[in-house]
Amino acid sequence: MRARRPPRAECLESQLPDVSVVIPTTGRPSIAEAVLSARGQQGVSVHIVVVCDLAEIPASVQDLRGHVDEIVCTGGGRRGSHARNLGVAHAAPGSHVAFLDDDDAWLPTKLAVQVPVVDRLAAEGWLPVVSSRILQRKAGAAPLPTAAPETLISDGMLPEDYLFRRRHLGVGRQSLPTSTLVTTHELATRCPWDEALPRHQDWDWLVRAARLPRARIVQVQEATAVYTVGSPGSISARADWRQSWEWAKRWEGVWSPETFSDFIAAQTLRYALQSRDGQGVREMVRAIRRNSPPSARNAVLAALGLVPRATLERVAMRKSRVTAGACPTDGER
User: Fold this and answer.
1) Which of 72, 181, 226, 307 matches a 20 to 30 Å C-alpha distance to 147?
2) Contacting residues for 116 by C-beta, under 8 A, at least 6 apart
């Protein structure tokens, strides 16, 4: 389904860089803000593809027909990776591809900032993925004023080393959120999202994309997106150590031992402690012993699994009111 724009607007847009925007949704009301923030991008021509992970188009998306170029449905229950792959399949040929989650929003100059970086790297022969900083917000609240993460990924650094080694605590921790990612149509096609994964879909995509020949992942200084923490149905809100462990096992022996142990400590061991699952705790300790002692920062993150999540969120929100804020988030969905 395509929404027609006036001929003069189409003529002017044809002179601008083309970006296909892939927005998976389950019909949350926040989809309206996401779509309008994509439509309002400056200095580019956008082709917005909304992929409903449902059997039918929900009313929240029907209301956006005049702002969306294509709407497709997965049939329901196929999850985000399938929806993103379907969106890429409907991307305009030869366009850039940008991903946007339905509970996030873009700042007006996002694509104008990132697309030139993609074009420069592609002209140098790279397969680029360009991320950025973000402004974080709790669902229903205004964004915090401080852009995150504090430290950007270094040139040539593997995403797993950046994301998981010696993780910072709080709002400044390392992140490459899905809603910041812009890439070429070639890379988006060559590196599909893993549709079997129930979680860590974005981290997995970045780890595999970085292993393509001539791939290069960079981050611009500017904040280009507003990232929502704690949306209803958010995958990252569920402490399921088994799902994280199933994903991590495929990378044992591929990642460096230090990175692997830091991931296990801060993610799966923390989840096992949160769940008070003795079997999970023992299995994660054995995995760490096979590899390397975790860094001090990640050991602290593991220990936070002993503190109830509700307590952590209350402390973080009190701190945010004093210091302009830390939203607790794993940086993935």
Assistant:
1) 307
2) none
